[in-house]
User: Which sequence fits this backbone?
DNA sequence: GCAGATTTTGCATGGTGTGCATATTTGCAT
DNA sequence: ATGCAAATATGCACACCATGCAAAATCTGC
């Protein structure tokens, strides 16, 4: 039950194509489990779905399920382990003329475009999460796990090379890395993740009214303007 | 396992002094359970603490534990059920000259001052949560539950009486209430909660450097300025 | 005190999660 | 192909989590 923050350790260990079949089979099993879980949850409600049912639907044993997911709830999170890394890469590669907030907005926009490919399952997933706030919290937790790394990328973009005012002791452990982070990168990362969530929630509540990108851009415009009171 | 979002239903039902001893005893039992849980967790790590141990330390049966908390993890959240209501009240009572962001900042500041009273246990709690990110996520979930209500209060402050542009169909259910909310109040509420969290995390990482209120005010200043890139 | 409501408790039951030993599958070199 | 080493899947045992139910203990108002 160490949990949430380590459940893609499997893939990241030697991720890059350590060997074809093994890697592919693991990805397939993992995908089968998540898809089975989401489809079952869409039918009968997330709380009614047991690990046994999911495992059976995916054609593996219950024990194998727990080899892939630390807990039952984790299977409903469905986070792409490499998504965070892509966003950070895009952030660092963005034109230097952009403000941090703009660069972050564009990086997230690009990532969202890629996520649109699994459209159908994604929507089903959203439906499940709406009915089970409990699981939505887990998803937030997954995003939270990426937050510190995103903050580090932001800090790197602002001050390439890592030069920072103040004491520059060499930081090794995770704990130390968190302490070394400035307030601004942490805040920007956290606010960006929040902005993404609010955009998603608001758009999900009225999907027909506007396309998602418009909501997303309005949110970032509000942030850039300092969250002014809207005109009466 | 319905969870997280309802675990203070007990007290809010008839909260206001339905009868002296009963109410006091319930509060005492609940407090004893949370305090026992936090102290045990501080000693041996949150994951090692069983419900049985907590119940024993608090002098009640295991079954009684589950009368107070929907799940084992909930005991570590330690959220004051009335805190959200106080913040909303303060927000609505704030001087009309303040911007929404300023009013929210002051309301939260005032609430934090009250929370300082349980200083010692609060710090112990922070220590436990740092070692168990899993539980920190639960706390975020608790805050998330307050978020929608906070957003409603913000909307009310902006437009007293609830007059909003667009279709004004009477909204009854919770689902409908969420749909009716504008983007701005939702965003402001979410960002404020996030700002609070980041402030707390940053301060906890370097408690000796600055007092908490200073960190908190800097965060809100950054938000009001539109999150500009910090000076090199 | 007493009747009625509330709370606590023990017990039974089923789902969740982990360690360990074993069987199977895969990668690789021969 | 064949055999060996590493990784993976599985079954089983066991502890913990969580809930429903009925009986006992406690509190409230009279």
Assistant:
């Amino acid at each position: 039950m160490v949990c949430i923050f380590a459940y893609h350790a499997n893939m990241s260990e030697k991720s890059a194509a350590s060997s074809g079949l093994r890697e592919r089979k693991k990805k397939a099993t993992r995908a089968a489990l998540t898809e089975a879980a989401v489809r079952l949850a869409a039918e009968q409600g997330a709380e009614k779905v047991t690990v046994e049912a999911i495992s059976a639907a995916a054609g593996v044993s219950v024990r194998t399920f727990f080899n892939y997911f630390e807990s039952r709830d984790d299977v409903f999170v469905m986070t792409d382990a490499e998504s965070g890394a892509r966003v950070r890469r895009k952030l660092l590669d963005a034109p230097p003329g952009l403000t941090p907030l703009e660069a972050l907005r564009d990086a997230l926009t690009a990532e969202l475009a890629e996520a649109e490919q699994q459209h159908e399952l994604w929507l089903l997933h959203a439906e499940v999460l709406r009915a089970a706030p409990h699981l939505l919290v887990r998803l937030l937790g997954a995003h939270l796990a990426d937050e510190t790394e995103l903050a580090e990328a932001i800090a790197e973009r602002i001050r390439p090379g890592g030069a920072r005012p103040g004491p520059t002791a060499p930081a090794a452990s995770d704990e130390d890395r968190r302490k070394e982070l400035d307030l601004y990168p942490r805040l920007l990362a956290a606010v960006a993740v929040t902005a993404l969530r609010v955009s998603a929630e608001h758009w999900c509540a009225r999907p027909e009214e506007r396309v998602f990108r418009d909501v997303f851009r309005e949110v970032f415009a509000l942030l850039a303007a300092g969250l002014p009171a809207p005109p009466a």
